[in-house]
Amino acid sequence: MRENLKPRQSAVRILSRILENGYTIDGAIALENDYADYTDSDRHFVRLLVLTTLRRLGQIDGVLAKVLKRPLPRKQKTVQMILRLAVAQGLFLKTPGYAFVDTAVSLTRKFHFDGLAGLVNAVLRNIIRLKEPLEGLENAKINLPDWLYQSWVQAYGEAATDRIAEVILEQPKLDITVPNNPEKWAKQWQGSVLSTGSVRVDATSPEQLEGFFESGCWVQNAAASVPAQLFSDIAGKTVADLCAAPGGKTAQLACREARVVAYDISEKRLKRLKENMDRLGLSNQVQIIVADILNLQSDACYDAVLLDAPCSATGTIARHPELKYQRTAEDVKRLSQLQKELLKKAVDITRPGGEIVFATCSLQPQEGDEVVQSVLDTVEVIRPTDERWQPYIMPFGSLRFLPSDGFDGFYACLMRKKSE
Q: Which CATH architecture has domain 5-129?
């Protein structure tokens, strides 16, 4: 076998699992037994190739449609994946034509589609011959499902949506939450300190940052760091963190000297949260409970409650482009209803006068203001006064971060429970 063919076989299988079976990229990679044995360079290449293909899939399929007389039958889906990856290499990763054609033909034979090797060769060479292969396919919205694009147009307007569609084609930089002396770590990691207090670095993994695991810091998108900062003084108070794993916001609350009760339905995810609290030296301030939030006793006992609710995660598509092909409008409706039930429970367990923050990493309005509106009989929305948040405040008083603002798409709303 050619030295570089095995990782490319992995890329074909990973892409197939994502598009055909609904896996996340990490879940699909986890099934590749040889992946851990690849060189760092090969692992980086496989991930980059798959992510690029997912981000640009609309354009890639558009180019293939120009040279394929008819779509490949379903039983030849593996060959379709090989072609998609090859086009991604050629058009977006700038691999020389002879290299990606030769590799694609070899992969076709390796997956036992010898009879289609000639077709693969001809299709890719015809693409190379196209003077402007992306002509008519320049608009980034081609890479979004129509229902998703139209929902953003309705919420943010066409110009803003087109800007979002462009921005999410690029791999976001890494954001680090730094509880102490962010300027020091920004200098050490050659990064910058954002208005949120996060440090943004040009890296793909914290392993690339010298001293990261001894720094007391953690990876967390800058927008995701905002909800825990919205509470007023919580030092010495008891705060419930609902749907808490993997614990970024739990750590923020603990760093603000709150006594945190971290709830999550997943024991496995809470194990990771505990490991994170142990690494950060925050375990003494955090009580961890495995529970279904909807089954909690509705005792108004918490001074404050943070609910970062399960959502469609459409605000994270830049990092997880597979979500474009795994979410539907029906998912948004279902999750919105769940969020309303969870937020009602969050209000129920908050003492009168206590604060609640509701957050989602979604760009869908149904998973934002519309959820908060369902509990307005028991809460009042508090408009943040911190100058840092003013550019992101919506008329409702909540916060909306867009990918075009340089963040993951995120929503957060601070409320106060009305006195009985």
A: Orthogonal Bundle (1.10)
* CB-count burial class (<10 Å; 0-12, 13-18, 19+) for 269: middle
What does the alpha-carbon distance between residue 51 and residue 169 come to, in Å, rounded to a whole number? Answer: 9
- d(CA 208, CA 215) in angstroms, rounded, equals 13
Query: In terms of pTM, does the model score above 0.90?
Result: yes
Name the DSSP letter for residue 285. Answer: G
> 261, 210, 216: which is closest to 237 by C-alpha?
261
Which pLDDT tens digit goes with each residue over 309-338?
A: 999 999 999 999 999 999 999 999 999 999
Q: Which of 65, 128, 134, 133 is nearest to 101 (CA)?
A: 128
Residue type, 210: E
What is the mean predicted confidence (pLDDT) over 114-118?
Answer: 95
What are the Cα distances from residue 377, in Å, to 244, 279, 365, 397, 417? 26, 41, 20, 16, 10
Question: d(Cα 141, Cα 58) in Å, to the nearest integer?
Answer: 8
Rounded CA gap, 191 and 183, in Å? 9
Domain 221-417 falls under CATH 3.40.50.150: yes
**Contacts (Cβ under 8 Å, ≥6 apart) of 181:** none
- Reduced to 3 states (helix: H, G, I; strand: E, B; else coil), residue 117 is helix
Contact 358, 310 (CB under 8 A): no
Amino acid letter, residue 400 = R
Tens-digit pLDDT profile for residues 175-209: 999 998 999 999 999 999 999 999 999 988 898 99
Domain with CATH 1.10.940.10 in the chain: 5-129
**What gap in Å lies between CA 342 and CA 345, rounded to an integer?**
5
Contact between residue 327 and residue 361 where contact means Cβ atoms under 8 Å apart: no
Domain with CATH 3.40.50.150 in the chain: 221-417
176 neighbors 205 (Cβ within 8 angstroms): no
Structure confidence by residue, pLDDT tens digits, 68-77: 988 888 889 9
Say which residue the tokens 């979410």 belong to.
327
Nearest to 207 by CA among 335, 67, 391, 40: 40
First to last CA, the chain: 73
